[in-house]
Amino acid sequence: MNMDEVYRKHAETVFRFLMTLCHEEETARELTQETFYQAIRSSGRYDGTCKVSTWLCQIAKHLWYREIEKRKKKGTLPLDEDVGQPTEGVEREIVIREEKMELFRKVHLLDETSKEVVLLRITGEFSFREIGEIFGKQENWARVTFYRAKQKLVKGREES
């Protein structure tokens, strides 16, 4: 794993994640750096069962929890008890955003007709009947085209 590349690709995500936890830019920057230091130290234990960004955000979250404990001991924790608790689903939102990006990258590789049908369906939320009308075809044609494109996307995902 090339950590320079990992840093370039994921530093902003980790920083934004930490900002949602601590709401302090300086702390988020310091913890982002510490996250990558810890990632380098434990890179041999990364087994690939999750996305790299998810692994990094887990490290970041644990570092933030450690920071909270330090602040509690020093008595410097803000009065707001909600500070440091992840907002509902923040980690899940990051994963969903990354999965969406990956999906759109793969959609972009489809042939033009399949790409347009998929985009009309998932971003325009058009019905199959409407998609068929746009192309001057039947509703069933739109369903079959979408299904085949989806199969290509799933197959591409399994090959990655």
UniProtKB/TrEMBL annotation:
<keyword id="KW-0238">DNA-binding</keyword>
<keyword id="KW-0804">Transcription</keyword>
<dbReference type="InterPro" id="IPR014284">
    <property type="entry name" value="RNA_pol_sigma-70_dom"/>
</dbReference>
<dbReference type="InterPro" id="IPR013325">
    <property type="entry name" value="RNA_pol_sigma_r2"/>
</dbReference>
<dbReference type="Pfam" id="PF04542">
    <property type="entry name" value="Sigma70_r2"/>
</dbReference>
<dbReference type="InterPro" id="IPR039425">
    <property type="entry name" value="RNA_pol_sigma-70-like"/>
</dbReference>
<keyword id="KW-0805">Transcription regulation</keyword>
<dbReference type="InterPro" id="IPR007627">
    <property type="entry name" value="RNA_pol_sigma70_r2"/>
</dbReference>
<feature type="domain" description="RNA polymerase sigma-70 region 2">
    <location>
        <begin position="7"/>
        <end position="73"/>
    </location>
</feature>
<dbReference type="InterPro" id="IPR036388">
    <property type="entry name" value="WH-like_DNA-bd_sf"/>
</dbReference>
<comment type="similarity">
    <text>Belongs to the sigma-70 factor family. ECF subfamily.</text>
</comment>
<protein>
    <submittedName>
        <fullName>Sigma-70 family RNA polymerase sigma factor</fullName>
    </submittedName>
</protein>
<keyword id="KW-0731">Sigma factor</keyword>
<dbReference type="InterPro" id="IPR013324">
    <property type="entry name" value="RNA_pol_sigma_r3/r4-like"/>
</dbReference>
